[in-house]
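To whoever picks this up:

The parser on our side crashed when reading a file containing two proteins. I've narrowed it down to the boundary between the first structure block and the second sequence. Both blocks are reproduced below exactly, byte for byte. First block:
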Amino acid sequence: MKIKKLARIKVENRLQATIDIGSHSCILLIAAFDDVPVEAAKPEDSAEVKSETEVPAENKEAAEIVASTESATPSTSENENNESTTPAAQATTSESQATPATRKILVPKLQKVEVCRLGEDIYEHGKITPERIQELVQIMTKFRMDLHALGADLKAVAMTEAMRKAENPDEVIEAVEKAVWVKPRVITGEEEGKLTYRSVKEWHGSGFVTIDIGGGSTELSNGETTFSIPVGALKMFKAMGPIPGPEYKKFIKETFKDLSFKGMTKKPIYLIGGTGTALAMVFLNKQVFDYKAIEGLEMSLSDLEAVTTRITNLSKELRAMLPGLENGRHEVIICGLFWLRSLLEKLRVNTFKISTAGLRFGLLYPPEKEPEPKPKAKRTFNFAKKTQPNEQEIPEQVGDNIKTAGDDK
């Protein structure tokens, strides 16, 4: 009796994960690429998809968010004036209606935030201290336990501004790799901005500018131009305290002195990062993170000013009780909001939208082809001397004969 050997088929794990290690906090994302109809509703109007498996909270200070979404490109209308169709065309139409086209959308299943404050060590010591490294390892160990509980594949671990400035990056990288079994990568500010823009583009299309305000840096991108500014909420807090004073005007003048925002002004704005999420939760008075309410939320400069004033007028203790301002966010939020207003004024816009996407999502998308540089137009010059009416043209040599103007007469 012959026994047939079954071929082993490698099945890609549906749940994929990334870790974003920033200057203020670390974020674990567990997500999956779901098939969504092309003509689906906008992300903020879509139905909520619950997490398939819940992970018990091991740290009460951790901000655990279980949220899901569906997103798609804007729908297109069909030609309603088509009066004559063949039976074959009608059959094709009915078949397409029965099986609508779909596309892959990255849907978050679990997001977990832990405060790490690596940026404080950079500001005070220029490197990450052993005590802070130990705290970071503990956070990474918790993340690894969540990954194993859900059976998710950790695809990437990215480190941003704090590690770009740290004097001892190798020491921190080695410690994190031992904790999560994946070697982290320190990415440039430009790459961080591009990945952030990509994450928003997949949900909302293009033609906008993203502002990602982190703890130690801020990235701006319009899809073609991307740059990073070494200014963040935590960095400002360490330099100016919880509420910026008169020195802020000089700080802004110096910061914007050599920056060019060409190609980014008067365009729709998407705000990314913890500052934006916290701002939305305070504005909406949401005690619990609600993706459907926050994603795509539009606010005006007057709304921003009202929230800033409200938070500023509270004591430190009461500020910490506002939604979204736990885990030390209440200390840096006002600096982040001051900085946001200055950026919006520089970009000459009166409204902006908030997105919960970000670097952690961009790390999971396949890389895009870099656009080819546009060839420079060649300038041509006409050095030919114009013939005057009373001048005879220069003879033209044709073979052995010489033709002059008037020979054909």
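<<boundary where parser fails>>
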Amino acid sequence: MSVNGQLAARSHAILRQDMIRGLTPALAAALLAWPALGFEAGLVTRALEIRSYNLKPGTRDRFHQLFVREALPLLRRWQVDVVAYGPSLHDRDSYYLMRSYAGVEDRQRSEDAFYGSAEWREGPRAAILAAIENYTTVVIQLDDATLRGLRESVKENAMPTETALSADLAVLLELNQDYIRSVQTSDVQRFREILADDFLCSLPDGSLIDRAHFLEQTALRVKISNLMAHDVNVRIMGDFAIIHARTTYATADGRQASGRYTDVWARRHGRWLAVSAHVTRN
């Protein structure tokens, strides 16, 4: 390494220690665990933002679901490079987010545009902010090779249970969308694929029907339109999951109406299947 490179690396190490002092214990420990950053003068090309959130007690699981379901796809639509995210290891109420930018000015432009957009302000903003007590932001510079190593390190050291939870959440959210779409389009075949053989459904009139009767009803002409699910809340408990949501739709005469549903899903032979549904209408 050249003299300039050595001086740059020493300065970078000092910066790294100063940065660590400003972080939560979990992020500080993570940074200290990484190999020394391969820093050479002239190679710094990216700005890495590390944001550490202190969440309101008991809200982290819900926050993670909301982030994965709404905030993360939105960030990606705005072409924000999300390097890593997830729950902290050191307590039950911390969460982190790492984003990469071309530079500090690019970060400012990108975040001004993103956080000022109608998609964010009229979308997940209120629910995200409601779960946050406070947060800390640190921005450092990394060369591309170090950033690639960081991505790989985060993937390798991710908690297996957390990785599995995120995967299950993504699958269940997609299945929930399939369920709603299949109701609206009378897609009997899709329901045959995602309903368990012992599926039961409680209808708004108080009746309880089995899978066969449900499929018969699904095949009939739909009397509602524009069926949509809102405020979807997925609760995963091992091989069982409960999905709560609110619905809006238009009746046959054009009136706007709403309701709620609770679906229960079970993992059987490696697949998530709906075992129960309860539907109410206002």
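After patching the parser it read the second block fine. Confidence is low (pLDDT under 50) at residues 1-24, 32-41. The two ends are 71 Å apart (CA to CA).
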